[in-house]
């Protein structure tokens, strides 16, 4: 007999066993959120921004959506341009109606349901009605930035901040005792790793100015970075975040580092070994600083950015032309972690690879570095970017179960620029509960509801609270 048809994205969406439904509704659904890595602009929170339209919210900075629209042949002026807001929205609805089975499809419907109580089909025919319905609610002030945060039960937001940032918006937010959410900076020193970039010298000078350190040498550069880390700590920072193709381990002596630094400041050509040696020494120094301050070190790797030269010249960096880099060697990452661990300078660390074929290798590597009393010192971070979808999350959870200790996992993050993206935590929790519930239903897990419920609650919230020192 054919199975009964299931309603579209109802309260039991993705929960295909009774065990999954119990775990989600009883243990996960009402847990608050720690969004420990995102790209929300703290200015929007500080000013309690009211958004002009659903177009601004959905398309203003979301390169996931931009990529999909380009694949449907839509003109760039309707993607990253400022053309007619209503038409841009209609074109997005047309795109989404074709992107069946994608995470964008699920996220968009969840956002309409949770924030706008809208259950219309997202397509070209309904675009005008959805546009008007959403904008009416946005213009009412019901969904300002702070109200969205409270409505979503977010307790901590970790923004992404350059070391040169004065963090003035964080200071403003900290004065709002009614928000009910900590908004803390995350130290993102990517630009200091780009010694081959033509703007490196200007960036170093800006960093020195922010740190009140005249940077004329590699040692001066380290002093400036240390000063900024001290400042970020004073502002509540609990973690760093770095993103590059790979994390090398080519230790380089002080004399050679000075030579490489001076070449970079003069915009002279560098050999690949010099470039990687410089990154190694900067990252080893930073890792020790993070350990000294009790920070978490987040490492994002395996991404090749700006792969379309013509579009890079037209619309700039990080506009939706990244891809998976298939040559981010686990050997150099392992050596880098070990180099810090040799002197007991390895901080708590989160590893995110864009290449899903590295799941097993990362989970096995993570088990090589531990500290007494620390649950999961080196974490395999949430399925990232092209992997934060139904299949990618299942594969990630399977690897965590088979090679690590699932109960130690620090759970989901949005990694988003959109204020509505907190539904991604719900999406993840549903997938988590479905995965564990299926193991129970298939007789692979002992049906200890109390234990499994505690694991679900910990992964949803408690583990990140403890891991990042937020409790």
From TrEMBL:
Record EC number: 5.3.1.12
InterPro entries: Metal_Hydrolase, Uronate_isomerase
Keyword annotations of the record: Isomerase
Pathway where this protein functions: Carbohydrate metabolism; pentose and glucuronate interconversion
Gene3D superfamilies, per database record: Metal-dependent hydrolases (3.20.20.140), uronate isomerase, domain 2, chain A (1.10.2020.10)
Reaction equation(s) it catalyzes: D-glucuronate = D-fructuronate; aldehydo-D-galacturonate = keto-D-tagaturonate
HAMAP family: UxaC
PANTHER family reported for this sequence: URONATE ISOMERASE
Family of this protein: Belongs to the metallo-dependent hydrolases superfamily. Uronate isomerase family.
Descriptive protein name: Uronate isomerase
């Amino acid at each position: 007999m054919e199975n009964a048809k299931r309603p579209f994205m109802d309260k039991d969406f993705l929960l295909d066993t009774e065990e999954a439904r119990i775990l989600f509704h009883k243990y996960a659904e009402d847990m608050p959120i720690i969004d420990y890595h995102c790209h929300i602009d703290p200015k929007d929170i500080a000013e309690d921004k009211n958004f002009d339209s659903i177009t601004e919210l959905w398309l203003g900075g979301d390169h996931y959506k931009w990529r999909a629209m380009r694949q449907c042949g839509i003109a760039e002026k309707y993607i990253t341009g400022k053309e007619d807001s209503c038409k841009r929205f209609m074109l997005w609805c047309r795109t989404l109606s074709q992107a069946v089975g994608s995470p964008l499809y699920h996220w968009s419907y969840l956002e309409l349901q949770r924030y706008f109580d809208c259950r219309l089909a997202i397509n070209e025919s309904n675009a005008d009605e959805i546009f008007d319905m959403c904008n009416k609610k946005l213009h009412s002030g019901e969904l300002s930035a702070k109200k969205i945060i409270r409505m979503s039960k977010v307790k901590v937001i970790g923004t992404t901040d350059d070391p040169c940032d004065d963090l003035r918006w964080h200071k403003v937010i900290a004065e709002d005792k009614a928000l009910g959410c900590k908004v803390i900076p995350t130290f993102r020193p990517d630009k200091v790793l780009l010694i081959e970039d033509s703007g490196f010298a200007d960036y170093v000078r800006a960093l020195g100015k922010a740190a009140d350190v005249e940077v004329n040498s590699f040692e001066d550069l380290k002093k400036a970075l240390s000063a900024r880390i001290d400042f970020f700590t004073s502002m509540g920072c609990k973690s760093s975040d770095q993103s590059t193709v790979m994390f090398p381990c080519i230790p380089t002596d002080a004399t050679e580092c000075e030579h490489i630094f001076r070449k970079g400041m003069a915009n002279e050509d560098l050999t690949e070994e010099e470039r990687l040696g410089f990154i190694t020494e900067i990252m080893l120094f930073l890792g020790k600083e993070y350990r000294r301050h009790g920070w978490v070190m987040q490492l994002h790797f395996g991404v090749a950015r700006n792969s379309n030269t013509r579009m890079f010249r037209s619309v700039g960096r990080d506009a939706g032309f990244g891809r998976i880099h298939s040559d981010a060697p686990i050997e150099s990452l392992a050596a880098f972690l070990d180099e810090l661990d040799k002197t007991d300078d390895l901080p708590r660390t989160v590893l995110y690879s864009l290449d899903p074929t590295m799941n097993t290798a990362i989970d096995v590597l993570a088990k090589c570095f531990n500290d007494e009393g620390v649950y999961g010192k080196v974490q395999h971070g949430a399925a990232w970017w092209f992997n934060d979808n139904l299949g990618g999350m299942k594969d990630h959870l399977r690897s965590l179960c088979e090679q690590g200790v699932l109960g130690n996992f620090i759970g989901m993050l949005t990694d988003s620029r959109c204020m509505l993206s907190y539904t991604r935590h719900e999406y993840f929790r549903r997938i988590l509960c479905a995965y564990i519930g299926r193991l129970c239903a298939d007789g692979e897990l002992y049906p200890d509801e109390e234990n499994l419920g505690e694991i679900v609650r910990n992964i949803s919230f408690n583990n990140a609270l403890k891991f990042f020192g937020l409790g």
